[in-house]
Write a structure and sequence with these properties.
Blueprint (H helix, E strand, L loop, with lengths): L10 E2 L2 E2 L3 H4 L3 H7 L4 H11 L2 E2 H8 L4 H13 L3 E6 L5 E6 L1 H4 L2 H32 L2
Antiparallel strand pairs: 1-2, 3-5, 4-5
Length: 138
């Protein structure tokens, strides 16, 4: 028998249990947008516009073709990238950021500002932690 969300079985110390997505409503967005290669792909398509696979691969750099293919398929599925196939000889495929993907530009711009302002502090904190960690033998 399932308990109703308001019954004591669904409470922890008097607090209703919530799923991870309810506790952090941006978790699904983080999963979609900030997976390992999604951000560089979207950033590159937004910065350079429509690109063929080889151009995109060159502009991103260290990503493997297999991973780029997988991520592009997922981004197309999520509606963040548009793939256009041209039935020519030889066939041509182009990728571009969708309007939905472009709507993330302000988020990326805010993150770039945050990075410029705060990454030096993060680096200092890491060095201090690592120094203290080494001194205590942890």
């Amino acid at each position: 028998m399932k308990s109703h969300p308001d019954t004591p079985a669904a409470l922890t110390n008097g607090t209703p249990r919530v799923s991870g997505e309810q506790a952090c409503p941006i978790a699904p967005v983080v999963d979609i947008v900030f997976s390992r290669w999604t951000t560089p792909i979207l950033w590159t398509l937004n910065a350079y516009g429509v690109q063929r696979f080889v151009e995109l691969h060159r502009n991103i750099g260290s990503i493997t073709p297999k991973v780029l293919t997988q991520r592009l398929r997922q981004l197309e599925r999520d509606g963040l990238v548009v793939r256009t196939y041209y039935p020519e000889v030889p066939p041509r495929v182009e990728y571009e950021i969708s309007d939905l993907g472009k709507s993330l530009a302000p988020l990326f711009a805010s993150l770039a500002v945050w990075a410029g302002e705060h990454l030096p502090a993060v680096e200092r904190a890491r060095k201090a932690f690592d120094t203290a960690d080494a001194a205590t033998g942890r």
